[in-house]
Structure formats: structure tokens, C-alpha cells
Amino acid sequence: MDGRGRPRRSGRLVIKYLGSKRALVPALGAMAAATGARTALDLFTGTTRVAQEFKRLGMEVTASDIATYSEALARCYIATDARGVDGEALAEEIARLDALPGTPGYVTRTFCEEARYFQPANGARIDAIRDAIEAGHGGGSPLACADGPGGDPLYPILLTSLMEAADRVDSTTGQQMAYLKQWAPRASNPLRLRVPQLLAGGGRAVRGDARDVARALGPIDLAYLDPPYNQHRYFTNYHVWETLIRWDAPPAYGVARKRADARDPATASAFNRRREMPRALAQVIADVRAEVVMVSYNDESWVGVPGLATSLREAGHEDVAVVGFDSRRYVGARIGIYNPAGERVGRVGRLRNTEYVFVAGPGDRVGAAVAAGRAAGGEIVPEPAV
């Protein structure tokens, strides 16, 4: 709450996330805008950081991911038009939820007592608020929203507010494969809801496997792809958020209290398997119907610069260029290596990497995007490296 007792408005999305493009967002936005795109697809949207930037720049954006928590974020920030939201009603409802006393439930038991992601007082607040959101706004499905039968347009916004509030008081290195052995200082702060900073304009949220979505969507001006880089699965890295949004109280296992369905092969992705990932990504590139395709990848990935450039050329794009950006590795790498009990067991070998942004499409649009990338601090990767 602010000094006058009103709920604070949040800034840009701040959830800690593996592979987040937070530092690269301005460059990606400038490059996309330089192509003249009016419609855009963010196919592995995650926290929707990049999709939000595209929408802020005036593009009509489709944000897609396979994760339920990502769909909630996309419905809040991309599918919701701020101009159609009753701001006073939203602020009043967030203030009401923020004033609820804690009621211990699944989160308190599973993530505070059996594990140590949150202090018990905050876990009980999460339980109480999430129950209240479901009772007052849910529609009986994992994510009932404005475009569903009987959906409440405030539902994804309130879920996002709670998820972001929980993220601000968690005790992890930025992933939920483990929690810290000693409480993070932020974990002692009281959980507080904020009003998400919504964006004006239209957009869509689509939950599904990237391969299916790429085949199903119609023509667009620009597609942005930021696929997983390695074997680390977002379903397990962010299982707490998946459970918070689904609110299905799943059986949990192990020290990290992961969802039992994390063991189900159906929750695994081809993009997290070394042998399958290059072929899966090449197929998505071939199937997506976009005049311009931008792909983010880094020098720790399973597919090298030559292989990815070849996939883009084989998809029929006239021109392909690569811009490299020096980047800090994700927050967990900078903190160190931890075992499942949250104990620090080592240091990472390096703290920086190179983020590559591939641009493929008509020569003039590729050239304009590359120029924007260079102006934003990137360097052209020489053709011999491709």
C-alpha cells in the first residue's frame, strides 16, 4: 500500500526467471520496430517481457507458451486492454485481497513447512488470497478468463498480482529446483499485492506446445522465438508458480516438493532433450508463417550459430544476419551453485555469455533490424562464423 492506503502500482514485471531477456528487451524492441512489423508472435513467451515491449511499441501481439503460469501472465499483460479495465474496481479488489488475514493451506504446508520457499506467515497469506481469488473470480477451470464462458476479466490480473507478490518474498536463487538453506532477507518482508501495470492495446494469449502453435497460427509480420537452451525444464524450475495458478493441490515429492506430474513424460518437452531439440526448433522455424523471424539464442546452447542460421535459410528466408550482445548470465549463476537442500556447493565457471539475435527475412527488413541492433550495443557476427 502507498502512503495514502492505496495499493501500489507495480513497475515492469520483475519475476526472477531463467533465460529472462530483461536486459535485452530494449534492443529486441528496437530491432522488431525497425522491421515495420504491425503484428508479432512471441512463441516461448515465459514471463512476457518481450511480448510486453512489442505491445508497448504498438504491435498487435500473440503471446504463447506451454506453461499455465505463463498463460496467466500473457492474459494479464498481453490479452488485457488497459483501456477496458475498471481501474477503480481493480484497485479496490486488490486492496480487499491484500487486507485478508492468513489462512494456512496447501502452500503453507507444502512450500513453507515441508520446504522453505516462503516464511509461514507469507505462505498463509498466499493461501488465503488465492482461495479468495478462486471463490470470487474463478470459473471452475484452471484459468477462466475474459474470453472464456463466464470468465472474469479481473481473474488473470489478480493471479498475476499474487504471483509477483510471492516472487518478491521467496527464498530461492531464481529457480524453484531448490530453496536457500538460510532465509533470503526478502523472505522476511510481508507479502503485499500491487496493481499490475497494464498496457493499452489488443493482443492474444495462446497456451500450447510451440510446434502446434506455429502450425496453427495464420500469417504474421514478425515471429520472435526464444526457445529453451538446455535440459533444464521450466515445468520443474517454476513448479511453485504452476501450482499457484492451477490451484490443484497436487501430490508433491522430494526436498523441493515438486509436482508429482513432473515425473509424467507428458510434461517433458522436446526442447529440453539434446537429441530432439535441434530438429524441433528447425521444424518450428519452417512452420511459422512470418515475414520476419527473430531468434534469441546464446553461446551455451545445444545449437550453434551455423546450425541455426542454416535452419533459417532452409525455411526460405531471403537474408539471415546475426547480432551478438554481451550479457550477464542469469541471477542463479551469479549467486552460485546450490544442491537440492539449498546449500551452496560451488561457483559457476563464468558469469557472462553472448546473446545472439538472429534476424531472417527480406533483405531490407533484416538490414534495418541489424542497424537498430548495432545502435543498441550489439555487434554483427561475421559471416565466416555462420
Provide keyphrases for this structure.
single chain; 386 residues; alpha/beta; Rossmann fold; two-stranded antiparallel sheet; 14 helices; 16% strand; globular
Q: Overview of this structure, please?
A:
With 386 residues, the chain is α/β, with parallel strands linked by helices. Helix 8 (210-216) runs parallel beside helix 11. The longest helix is centred in the N-terminal third of the chain and has 18 residues, at 120-137. The protein is globular, with a radius of gyration of 21 Å. It has helices at residues 25-34, 49-56, 68-79, 87-98, 106-113, 120-137, 155-167, 210-216, 234-237, 239-246, 277-287, 305-314, 331-335, 363-375; strands spanning 39-42, 60-65, 203-207, 220-225, 252-253, 258-259, 290-298, 319-328, 337-338, 344-346, 352-361, 379-380. The protein is built from 14 helices and 12 strands. Mean pLDDT is 86; it is low at 1-11 and 144-150. The strands form 3 sheets. It has an 8-stranded mixed β-sheet with strand order 3-2-1-4-7-11-8-12. The protein has a two-stranded antiparallel sheet with strand order 5-6. A two-stranded antiparallel sheet has the order 9-10. It has a single domain (25-385), classed as 3-Layer(aba) Sandwich (Rossmann fold), CATH 3.40.50.150. Its EC number is 2.1.1.72. This is site-specific DNA-methyltransferase (adenine-specific). It comes from Schaalia naturae. One of its GO terms (molecular function) is methyltransferase activity. Keywords: Methyltransferase, S-adenosyl-L-methionine, Signal, Transferase.
